[in-house]
Amino acid sequence: MKKVFNLLFLTLLLFTSNSCEKDDLCTPDQAVTPRLVIEFKDALSPLENKPVERLQVQEIGSTEFAPLNNEGATTLTSVENISIPLRTDRNRTSYNFILNESGVLNSDNIDFTYNLGEEYVSRACGFRVIYDGLIAVLTPESTGTQWVQNVAVVEQSITNNTDIHVQILH
Amino acid sequence: MFKYYISILFVLIGYFGHAQGKNEKPKDSIVHKQSYGLRAGIDLASLIRTGLDEEYNGFQILADYRLSKRLYIAGEIGNESLDRTSESVDYETSGSFLKAGVDYNFYENWLDMDNMIYGGARIGYATMTQTLNRYDYNIDNNYFPIDTNIVDREFSGLNMIWLEIQLGIKVEVLNNLFLTANFQLKRSITQKTPDNFDNLFVPGYGRTFDTGSIGVGYSYGIMYRIPFFKK
């Protein structure tokens, strides 16, 4: 009986050290802060998709280009839709959409403003941000030609990466 | 699972009581009488963890009272706090808990031995306060600088009710002095969770799991029996 007890006691002591469990890992299938999903449409017939020849997106003031898809590509050619991150520390993100048409760069600026909300995900992933009340404003240029004709918000609340939130007509 | 366990326990108790009534034969002149009384003690597991784990503080009192040869009323009372720093969330939980139920001794003692290999059933209740101290956002890219949020968000009035089964032993090492150890398997029945957050640790229950309502635990300690009578 005492031997049994000693054995059990030792086993219990071993259990004192906490081990890392699967539950403690933030896996990609858990909810993540959604990105802004943008679709490119034809300005002349807005129901038609119109791919952009070669596109890069850059936040104003940043030296780096934003990731345009889940793989983290920063330059995409003949692209019909992109998903870009929005700032989680302020309610405004201002992006330059840089079109590269046969080597000629044309940069147009769009201002995105929104309300920030947060949602608990799990102990391993922490929280995520969700956005609401999205407004997109195309900054008019006094000189030069703008490749973007119009911007339309089709979904004001950004809660996932599957909805399309904004259409850019060009 | 628990339903079956409790049903089986009751069937066993019923059977045992029945059997006792029928076997009233003249007994041997030598009868080894069993001590009855209140047994109380402290949980060394939480004391040792308090010493080893900087993030943890805990104290627990164990008690049981013998009803019949094999059946005991048993319970635990205590408080625990955990101040946990992890990768995405830092939180602090503290509160008190109470567990009440029965222990059933499966061990056939020889002569005047008084040891237990027991199965126990408990209902547990904990009340606690949880404070969220820091958290990160789950973001799939690093284009923008990742900012961590330092806050002091306190959620009080949280609670949980759970069912627990225990498998353990109680061994008499000196007269009326016992060493005890057990494993615990728990299942949360109902809980009050903070708004837009979760109960990550529950006193008496232990850590929770995102993937289910099952909890595990253990205890080992020392108990002393105040003998009331022998029969």
Question: Any overview of this molecule?
Answer:
The complex is a heterodimer of chains A (170) and B (231). Chain A is built from one helix and nine strands, in the order H-E-E-E-E-E-E-E-E-E. With 170 residues, chain A is mostly beta strands. In chain A, strands 3-2-5-6-7 form a five-stranded antiparallel beta sheet, with no helix packed on it. Chain A has a four-stranded mixed beta sheet with strand order 4-1-9-8, with no helix packed on it. Chain A starts with a helix and ends with a strand. The longest helix of chain B is centred in the first third of the chain and has 21 residues, at 2-22. Chain B has helices spanning 2-22, 44-52; strands spanning 35-43, 56-66, 71-85, 89-105, 116-135, 149-174, 177-192, 201-202, 206-207, 214-230. Chain B has an eight-stranded antiparallel barrel with strand order 1-2-3-4-5-6-7-10. In chain B, strands 8-9 form a two-stranded antiparallel sheet. With 231 residues, chain B is mainly beta. Chain B is built from two helices and ten strands. The two termini of chain B are 35 Å apart. Mean pLDDT of chain B is 88; it is low at 11-21. Chains A and B meet through helix 1, strand 6 and strand 7 of A and helix 2, strand 6 and strand 7 of B.
Multimeric organization: heterodimer
What is the string of helix and strand elements of chain A?
HEEEEEEEEE
Strand order of the largest sheet of chain B: 1-2-3-4-5-6-7-10
Radius of gyration of chain B: 22 Å
Q: Which secondary-structure class do the elements of chain B indicate? A: mainly beta
**CA-to-CA gap between the ends of chain A?**
83 Å
Reconstruct the topology from this structure.
The complex is a heterodimer of chains A (170) and B (231).
Chain A: H1 2-15, E1 36-41, E2 52-59, E3 75-79, E4 81-84, E5 92-101, E6 104-122, E7 126-138, E8 150-153, E9 166-169
Parallel strand pairs in A: 1-9
Antiparallel strand pairs in A: 1-4, 2-3, 2-5, 5-6, 6-7, 8-9
Chain B: H1 2-22, E1 35-43, H2 44-52, E2 56-66, E3 71-85, E4 89-105, E5 116-135, E6 149-174, E7 177-192, E8 201-202, E9 206-207, E10 214-230
Antiparallel strand pairs in B: 1-2, 1-10, 2-3, 3-4, 4-5, 5-6, 6-7, 7-10, 8-9
